[in-house]
Structure formats: structure tokens, C-alpha cells
Amino acid sequence: MKCRKLSGYLTVYVALTLTVMLSLCLTLIEGTRRHTVSFEAECVMDIGLDSVLAEYHRVLMQRYGLFMIDTSYGTDYPSYYNTEQHLAEYLTRNLSCEDCGLLSFLYRDLLGMELEDVQVLKVSLATDDDGRVFQLRAAECMRNRLGLGIVDNLLEWMEIVDGYGLLEGDVEGQLDRVSAELQQYQGMEKQIGEEEWIRLEIKDPTEAVRRLRSEGILKWVVEDVSELSEVTVDTAQYISGRTAMGQVNHGSYSGQEQLGLVDNVFLLEYFLNYAGRYGAAIEDSLLQYQVEYLICGKGSDRDNLRQTANLLCGIREAANVIHLLGSETKRTEVEAVAAILSGAVALPELKPVFETALILSWAYLESLYDVKTLLAGGRVELLKTDANWHYSLDNIWSAPAQAQSTEGQGLNYEEYLRILLYIQPPDTLTLRFMDLVEMDIRKTPGNSCFRMDGCIDGLEAEATIRSGYGYRFTVRREKQY
Length: 481
Known about the structure:
The model has no long low-confidence stretch (mean pLDDT 87). The protein is an alpha+beta fold. Strands 1, 2, 5 and 6 form a four-stranded antiparallel beta sheet that branches. It is built from 16 helices and six strands.
């Protein structure tokens, strides 16, 4: 009987091939797992940050059109560590498989991922760089709504204001100096003959104006002073006061870009759009004259309105003096009256002084009329003509009350406020506007401790995520609105 010899080369070949293929498959599977863990870690981090940014302050967005995270989350004190905890919760929930529910018996976690550590590395607060972050977001908000027409209008007005020096003149200071000069002659004795002396009785054109000023401007430019807001606030408890005392939080970002000219105009439009003013107060706001607060920064509505009225009166005085000096008819009238006044006391050298006193007093009286017209909703040209001049020279002796007109051409009260805002430092305006935001948001439910220096505009975070299969990944992301 012959024995058959069996060859085993095929078995060996299959064994060797399967070993290589199994190694390759296992390597591919493990590589896939590793890259899946890395990819999911990045996805979970992005989703977590998006979820944190979705927790923007609702009242801030609804009332002021800004997306920011309030890091106090309704508590007494803001801290970006609160945001860190919220981010950790979102990451943990997105890494967990507990939400699979009834399918958990069909699903096996092949990644075994869990959060090891998370840190918020940097935050950008609304108040950083003297409110530059807030300025950029506010300007961007208005840029999307307005065209460049408003920029052209404002620059045209400012060209007139700067060109004629309407903000530089101290008309009331000049009026005081002229009045003091005339008073030096009051009661003096003057010799008019060899033995005849008379006591000088100077008819001072500034007397009525000084009386008006002593009684306060609001009495003459507001229809009913008793109806003015009496609200007062303690500015020390708001962001501008806390900044002055060095009691504000600071973010980790720095070197925010400067506002350009166009963006600065859009910022002013944002302030005018979201702040109330005299005659157009915002319902439920704490201060009623908010734009006036931006300009003056006083803790009282009345004080802010009074100072704003004085600023407007100063602009109008300078403009009205320019008109009087340039009007041949009115100059002739002033010269004639000055000659009479100086001749009455036999002091012809006082004629130029009387001319100056008459012009300044006349301009002041017309300015009161202008401001009253603006506060009543009317319009006043920056530079007047004889056609739209109201008071006659005779009125400076008695300053009678006269009804204001709400018709005409020129700029209205809001447009004059736009000019006053333009000459203020943007950083000062921004801090004061954030005061207003804190005032009004604190009146809403659950926001009694709201602070602008606790509002995040953007953040950078880092998370370390590990896998039960031995992998660990660190993911860093930066996001902002």
C-alpha cells in the first residue's frame, strides 16, 4: 500500500495572508476610531461654544439689538467661570450616550469619550478698552440699518459749526465783561459846565438779559417747568462711576481697532436711536432725558436738560451774533440806538461799548426764542436771515414772552443734539450710554444686579477630551458674535 504525501503550502499561505489582513483591518479600525474621536471632539467643542453663545441676554438683545452673554446668569455677581461651567455642561451632555433612550440596548459606545477638563482662556467684555467693544458692535448694528446719507448731513452741519466757530465763542462771558464795563460808569459824576455836575444814569442794555439769566434758562424755554421730570440717580453705582473708582472687570483681549469717522457717526445714531430725550422719552426708562444725560452726565433729569439748553443757547448766541454783525439793516439800527445811549450821558467814547452790549443782548434774547422753539418741536436754521429773525431791538428792554413757532426750516431738536453728541469724546458717551443700559435692564425681572462689565462679546476656550480607548485630545476654539 502506497502512502500519499499531502502538501501544506496552501494552508500556510492562507494563515499568513489572514494574519496580514487581520492586522491591516484592526489597524484601519483603530485608526478610524482615533480620527473619529478627534473629529467628534472638535465637533462637540464647536457645538458647545455655539450653545454658550446662544445664551445671550434676551433683554439686551430685544431692547438694544446687541448679542452678549451675561456671565452673572441672573445671580448677584458676574464671572466668566460661570460661563466655563455652562460650557462644561454642554460638552459633557454632547459626549454622553444617555440620550439614546430605548435604543441603548442596540447601541454600543465605540468611542468612550468624556470630558477631562475645560477652561475659558480669554474673554472679550463689552467694557474693554474704554468700551471699544461696545462701540464696534453698536456701530455695526446701525451700519446695517442706515445709509451714508446721515453721515453727509452731519458733516455738512459740522462744517458750518466749525467754520463759523459756533462752539468756540463765549458770548455770555463777553456780555458779562461789557456789562461790568458799563457799570463802572453808573453813578459817576461828570462835569458838564464850569460849575455844573451831573450823576450818570447808564441805561444798561444787558440789564434785562442778566435778570433772565439769574432766573434760570428753563423758565424761559420750557412751556411748563412743573411738568419736567424730577428723576435723580446715583451715577456711582453704574459703569461710569465704577470705572472712575477702578471697580470694573477686565477681559483678556486688548488692542481693539479704533472707530473710523463713518463708524463714529453710526455710533451716535445708535445712541439717538436707543436713548430717549426731552419730548420723546422711552417708556419704563429710569431717566427720562437720556440723550441729555449722554451730553452732560448729571445725575438729575432737570440738570441734564438745563445744561443741554445752555449749550444750545450758546450755539444759537454765536450764530445770532454772526447774523447781527452781517446784517446791514440791524447794524444801522444798533449804531443809532448806541449813539442815543452814549449821547444821553455825554460820553461818546462809550458808543462802541453800547453797540457791543446791544448786539450781545439782542442775540441772547433771540437765542432763548430759538431754544424754546426747538424744545417745542420746531426747527431753527443754523445761520439765520432777516426773514426768519423774530425779536426786534426794542424787546431787549423788557424781554416779553412770545409764543414759539413749530414750523419753518432748519434743524430740529434731535439734529442739534446730534451736533452736541458729535463734539463729545466717544469713550465718555459710551460709558454714559452703558449707564443707561444698566439703569433700565436692572428694572426688568431677574436682572437687578445686571452689569455691563459682566457681558461677554466673545471668548476663547480649551477643552481636554479623553477616550476610554487611550486617546486624549485638546481642542482650542475662539468664537464671538
